[in-house]
Design goal:
Number of helices: 17
Helix content: 25-40%
Radius of gyration: 23 Å
Distance between the termini: 34 Å
Number of domains: 1
Low-confidence stretches: 1-47, 210-222, 239-251
Order of helices and strands: HHEHEEHEHHEHHHHHHHEHEEEEEEEHHH
Shape: globular
Mean pLDDT: 84
Largest sheet: 7 strands, mixed
Structural class: alpha/beta
Strand content: 5-15%
CATH architecture: 3-Layer(aba) Sandwich
Strand order of the largest sheet: 5-6-1-7-10-4-11
CATH class: Alpha Beta
């Protein structure tokens, strides 16, 4: 627990509450305090070896339900009211096309695996989100929480939370999203609250445990956060000099230093920041004029997505092993966005940000160490409706993978003639969950650990998607 508090508490003569500073170390790493973990770092661990692989997962969740036709399965041979509204673009893979807004991803298709037969059958936003983000595992917790239940909630060397949630507010947006998919994507089911994902913009047990009240409640203001961490570190150094001890001092450095550096985008090469930048991709004023009065419509903007994906890469570098990035606006009925005005904005942002993320990982030699998953809670109806949109559809859902050391440059499964249901090699939620979890957990070693709940072992032990076994 890192808990740096304000002047409202009683202090010792050293100007600091010794009790609170000692609480810095209790970060819940398989029952050890962080100072204890650091002190015992050189000791051999008893029992079975760790099931945690040296890889990471980044899930980009497109809240609202992305359409399968306009993303990765255009169906241009279908009648006009079914096929992708904006046409298709040829990929690097012979005979494989994407929706026309994904030209940059089409150029990188040899580094992608596209699943065209993923189905779970649920067409309700809330329950489908919970199902997909948990992979339908029996604990009903999101997959990142499953991972942190096994690996611990923080990285032993860097102090970074192992499971992080990055909504638009984490990248500086002044809104939470409509609806707030950072909350929808964080179910913990039967697990303890301590395994909630760390949301730097607010919420979650780990966030509360790492509470900074200098000044109060400003995690969503990154400048205030960084200033608070700098001040706290200076205070921690002074306190350490006065007798906190070697490992408590090291714990403070780990926690504060890791979080500070990971969220400080000024440490990035400006060219890298520019490569990710999606701030130019905004909802056109004409759309606001036509659909005025739609509550929360402005919060569908994807202009922060590039920074979210850059932060995701920085989280991974700092020791986080499961990152969920949320983007909203994909409920393309035609009420707020339809396919007609939504895809040029939302699709273009995903195309740009994901391509930048892939290239960045490749250049840093991290591509095979990080699995990127792109999906949403369901797909959209095969037939375009009267509002130039598509409605909820749980019978076929877009799903894309990149990296993680898995086989790339392929299309898995096939949809039917109209793009409404699997026609070959259907893929289920448990298969998706197993594919993701096996990237970061070794099922053979995991089953040797008696403290791991049966439900978690079962989720990892499921058969992965054929062609994507790690």
């Amino acid at each position: 627990m890192l808990k740096i508090i304000d002047s409202g508490l009683h202090h010792t003569c050293e100007g600091i509450s010794r009790r609170e500073w000692f609480r810095i170390g209790t970060v819940g790493l398989t029952g050890l305090t962080l100072p204890g973990a650091l002190a015992l770092k050189s000791s051999a661990a008893a029992g079975a070896s760790s099931p945690v692989r040296d890889r990471a997962v980044v899930v980009l969740f497109l809240g609202g339900g992305p359409p399968q036709h306009e993303t990765f399965d255009p169906k241009m041979s279908a009648p006009a009211e079914y096929r992708a509204m904006f046409g298709e673009v040829q990929t690097k893979l012979p005979g494989v096309t994407f929706g026309s807004h994904f030209d940059r991803l089409a150029e990188r298709a040899d580094r992608l695996s596209i699943v065209r037969s993923f189905r779970h059958g649920n067409s309700s936003h809330g329950s489908a989100t919970s199902q997909v983000i948990s992979g339908g595992n029996a604990t009903e917790a999101q997959l990142g929480s499953i991972f942190s239940r096994v690996a611990g909630t923080t990285h032993p060397q860097t102090g970074m939370p192992t499971n992080v949630m990055l909504g638009p507010a984490a990248a500086g947006a002044g809104f939470k999203g409509n609806p707030d998919y950072t909350q929808r994507c964080a179910p913990i089911g039967s697990l303890s609250k301590s395994f909630q994902p760390f949301d730097p913009a607010g919420g979650g047990q780990l966030k509360q445990n790492m509470e900074l009240r200098i000044p109060r409640g400003r995690f969503d203001d990154r400048r205030s956060l960084l200033a608070a961490l700098d001040d706290a570190k200076r205070g921690a150094e002074l306190a350490a000099q006065r007798g906190l001890g070697q490992f408590n001092e090291q714990a403070i450095d780990v926690l504060i230093g890791g979080v500070t550096e990971a969220f400080d985008l000024q440490r990035e090469d400006p060219r890298t920041v520019a490569a990710y930048d999606t701030s130019h991709i905004k909802i056109p004023p004409s759309v606001f004029v036509r659909k005025k009065g739609k509550k929360g419509f402005a919060e569908q903007t994807p202009e922060y997505l590039g920074k979210q994906m850059l932060l995701a890469r920085r989280m991974v570098e700092a020791g986080c092993r499961f990152v969920t990035v949320t983007s909203t606006g994909w409920d393309l009925h035609g009420n707020r966005f339809g396919v007609d005005d939504g895809m040029p904005v939302l699709g273009s942002a995903v195309n740009h940000a994901v391509a930048a993320f892939m290239d960045d990982l490749q250049e840093r030699g991290m591509f095979d160490d990080v699995l990127l998953v792109v999906t949403g809670e369901f797909g959209r109806t095969p037939k375009i409706n009267a509002k130039a949109g598509r409605d909820h559809w749980g019978n076929l859902c877009p799903l894309m993978f990149a990296g993680g050391g898995l086989p790339m440059g392929q299309v898995i499964g096939q949809s039917d003639r109209l793009g409404g249901a699997p026609a070959a090699d259907p893929v289920s939620l448990p298969q998706v969950a197993s594919t993701i979890l096996r990237t970061v957990l070794d099922p053979g070693i995991l089953r040797l650990h008696p403290d791991v709940p049966t439900e978690i072992n079962a989720a990892v032990a499921q058969n992965p998607i054929p062609g994507l076994a790690s």
